[in-house]
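Feature request, filed as a ticket because there's no other form

It would be nice if the structure record came with a short human-readable summary line next to the tokens. Right now we just get the raw output. Example of a typical job, pasted below so the devs can see what we mean:
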Amino acid sequence: MRKDSRLSRVLHVLVHLKMTEKPVTSDKMAEMLFTNPVVVRRTMALLRDQGYVQSTKGHNGGWSLTKPLTEITLLDIHKALGETSVFTIGLTDEHTNCPIERAVNTALKDVMDEAENLMLKRFGEITLDILGKEFK
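Raw output as currently delivered:
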């Protein structure tokens, strides 16, 4: 199963935007992330829709922050990306009539829900400025 690394990749980009303090093109971000500029534009558009970044066209254009990193949390970005779960672990639903499958799913779901709630709470406590402090 492939890991969803969008959150960590977007956090990487946002800290770079702060450190460069000038607009960065989708092409440049794509090089940095080893991906396609179209993927970058789609992802950044999600952040733009939430008011975290803006884009400018033309010479010296690109993406830039609209809010200081001190006002953006990991949870904000997680939500902006439309993430539904922090885990890639899934429950099985192939044998819904089986009492053993139901018991296993209940146990796993309870533990994963508890862990996810704790993780999301912690995400809400961490602002993005913390991520770049050691690089000043």
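Something like this underneath would help us a lot:
Residues 6-135 form a domain with the Arc Repressor Mutant, subunit A fold (CATH 1.10.10.10).
The mean pLDDT is 89.
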